[in-house]
Amino acid sequence: MTSPNLSIISARPTSTAGLMAQTGLNEDVLFELVHRFYGKVRQDRLLAPIFEERISNWAPHLERMVAFWSSVALMTGRYHGRPIPAHVPLPVNAVHFERWLALFRETAGEVCTPAGAAHVIERAERIAQSLQTAVLEASAGPGAMSVPD
Ligand code: HEM
């Protein structure tokens, strides 16, 4: 066992320290959460093919996802990317998002304190909803969701 990484690399160190204290989350917990979660995803019959077709080198994806969760859960500002365009072309619907969330909730319960799990699950649900809306709007075609004149 390595000792927990309690150093704070954050664009907003005071907010990050407060969130860490409230939730028990830190970079080590988020590393474990992400690695365990994608371990499950890669065993999942519904989700695995979608990932395996697009990700040939998992190390940079996992590193990006730890940075993403660090930004989302601890406000560190470590992630710089655009999740929506990455998901719009994927062959996914509500069933895929529900499975993704089920695996995420399960993993969060295994890895985080109850407060930490509640914190990341609440954010995952919100982001999944907005990604799903973006995928649906894109598949409905250009202008399908726009307000008529
Ligand atoms: C149906 C469920 C989902 C599937 C199948 C899925 C699949 C993928 C795939 C294949 C990529 C890699 C895209 C690429 O590099 O070409 C990706 C990237 C990513 N996903 Fe998901 N995803 C799902 C849901 C989510 C949710 C709910 C979140 C957030 C809570 C999320 C966050 C991200 C982020 C941050 C990236 C990196 C985007 C970037 O910076 O390039 N995904 N996802």
Verbal overview:
With 149 residues, the chain is an all-alpha fold. 66% of the residues lie in helices and 0% in strands. The protein has 7 helices and no strands. It has helices at residues 13-23, 27-41, 48-54, 58-74, 83-87, 94-111, 114-139. Helix 2 crosses helix 4 and helix 6 (94-111) runs antiparallel to helix 7 (114-139). It starts with 12 loop residues before the first helix and ends in a 10-residue tail after the last helix. Bound molecules: protoporphyrin IX containing FE (HEM). Protoporphyrin IX containing FE is lined by residues 47, 50-51, 54-55, 64, 68, 81, 83, 86-87, 90, 92, 96-97, 100, 124, 127-128, 131.
